[in-house]
Amino acid sequence: MIVLAAMMASMTVADMRQKRRVLIIAAPGAADARRVAQQAALGGRSRELDDRDVTVVELAGDTVKGAADSATSLRARWRLPRAAFGVVLVGKDGHAALRRSEPIDAATLVATIDAMPMRRAGQR
Questions:
Q1: DSSP state of 103
Q2: Which of helix, strand or coil describes residue 39?
Q3: C or N terminus of the chain, fewer CB within 10 Å?
């Protein structure tokens, strides 16, 4: 698990295409209440997320955890304003599969992933 996280952190979101789904969590700062709520919603779900090939990338201000991209490039590419909270689930095909301006509960996230064509194909 730790080795995989370190390997993913050295890759850009674009590099993860076809390999991983990426959940981008963006907040103005580390103390943002919505960021904290999103982390809490995902807490204890790391195995479920890993089973679904999900890498979590966090942007807090200008700091990025989980990918080698800059905060500026991620915010521009995924239309995530610096002063706002946002969550984007990027499918393995590289497109935004889910976008929210409030935290996503884990059940919605899992259901969205399980409905994706690549996920359904992988379960056969």
A1: P
A2: helix
A3: C
